[in-house]
Structures are given as C-alpha cells and as structure tokens.
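Workshop exercise sheet. Pairs work together: one partner reads the sequence aloud, the other fills in the structure field after running the prediction. Swap roles for the next sheet.
Pair: D.N. / O.F.
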Amino acid sequence: MQVGLEVGGIARGLHQDGVLIDGRNLTSALVDTADQLAARPRRALFEASFEYRGVLVRTDLLLPAKRGWRLVEVKASASVKPVHPADVAIQAWVAEGAGVRLAETALACIDTGFVYSGEGDYRGLLAEHPMGEEIEGLRTEVPKWIRAARATLAGPEPDIEPGDQCTDPYACPFLEHCVPPQEETGYPPEILPRARPSPRHCARRVISTFARSPPGVSSTHCTSASASPRRAVCPSSTPRRSGS
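Structure field:
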C-alpha cells in the first residue's frame, strides 16, 4: 500500500500544474471535481471523484485531451495484471456515466528499465499502456458486477471458508471479521523438555500452541501432522489453533 501511495505521488509530480481533489469529504470531492471540469484553462486532476448509479470512483489521473479527457490508472507494478483492465473499466463506466467525455483510457506501470538520475527527476518511470481495446468488452459487464455485488450485500453473510480468495488479488477489508485474531493462551511447544527447535523450524512446522502441557510429556510425543502442516498433534493433549 505504501509503495502504491509513493508511486501515485510521483505520478502527480509529473504534472506540475495539476489539482488534487481532497477526498476527506466525498460529497465535497464530487462538487470540487465538477467545478474543476468546468474551469478554464483545463488542468490535470488528481483523485477526481465521480458517482454514477450509486458507484463512486476516484481516478488517479484525469488529463486534458483534445477531445475530452484521458483517464490514467496508476499501478505500482511492472506490467499489466489480469485484474487491471477491470479496474479501468469500472472507472471509465462511472466517469462516462457521470458525463465525462473520455478520449482515451490508459494504465501506467513502472518501467523496469528506468534509471534514476537524481534531483527528484522521475520522468520515464511510468510507462503507459492504452486500455481502450482491453476494456471495450468489459464495459457491458460492469453493470452485471454491480448487480451481483448488491445482491451479496442484500443477502445473508456468505458461508464460505476463508482462503486465498480473501487476499488475491486484493486483501478483503472484512478478513478480520471472518478470521478474528485469537488471544494467545496455553504454553508454547518450546517449553517442553528437550524441545529447543530452531526459529525456522518453529515458523514452518509449529503454528498452534497447546492449551495445557501435561506433566511428563516430552517433545518426542508431538509430531507434525502430514495432512495439515499448520497444526501440531499431541496424543496427550488437544492442540489449539492460533489465529493466522
């Protein structure tokens, strides 16, 4: 996240005469964006805010063009990822729905061949990739995505086990609700007699702690479960899974 913020700041710095829309109050941001769109001469807008059919977006760069505006989404990655066109498609759909005439859409990624010459000169750091053709077929999909999202919000809490989908491609903001952090209780395995595994071994093989450690239980009684390397199995006690 921090890297993304830094790259976004650099992108804004490449357009010295631009205007940053304050997003602390989204209602005011919408009004300020509309005012800047009508202002003359036109200037680059950073974090321009638009709302259409209940969907609000804030665009990284909105740049004046001969026949409208250029919408540029900035990513702190070295290439266009499969999820990126959908990001641009949603922003373009909302901006155009709000009345903005888009002449072009693009995605700006980091050019790995860039050489920093110093003195804050980052010209050439970002390489733009036109997204017009990439998002053309996705524009009609955006309303379907929105309807599906609203149906999910209106329905019961999904009964889905947390997994990779919770962090890929982006971390879900509700992850802690589904997997709340658990208070550490009991005794760590390394206090058992003759149990002095290396830190690397602990990190890889032992995640849970034991709720209790019966007298006489040695480290030889505890083995890693082959079917579930994230848990430790002790025949004399019940293991307790810690928060992950």
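Discussion prompt: Strands lie at 19-20, 45-52, 55-65, 68-74, 102-110, 126-130, 209-210, 223-224, 232-233, 239-240. What would you look at next?
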